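FAQ: What does the model actually see?

It sees only this:
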Amino acid sequence: MDRLVLALSRLGANVATCALFIIMASATLDVASRNLAGRSVPGVVESAEITLVIGAFLGLAYAQRNKAHVATSIITEMFPPVMARAMRVVGLFIVSCYIALATWVSITRAWAAFQSGEVRFGLIEIPQWPARAAIAVGFALLLLEVLRDLVRTAKGTARAEPG
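And it is asked to produce this:
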């Protein structure tokens, strides 16, 4: 199971990287077009907004896997190891409940956007559902990683270094 979660997290990170590269390339193309032709490429801003959401949310799980999110242990360091571990387990449980709720809400919003044909208005209309689906997938992958951390912490097998 751990290998599957890692593979999914890496896949999400790779798609996020591609999304950010697309933003970079389209912004470069837009700047070049403005300087050379005197006008922008239609839809670059609108598509960048959607693509940025994809890039941000699909990278969450891999960042969790590699302990790249901001964290502080100032409180848990004051307690004995057993108590500190119990506090981390409770914290991870609370976080997993929140992420599960965010996942569910994101899935329902993505589905509603897909069914209604919701679009981002601008120079061109861009469907909202891919970004909303990326939020849902990103939260779901993050939930898998947090649950993995929860189980490993509860067992006492969690490692401090990136995994």
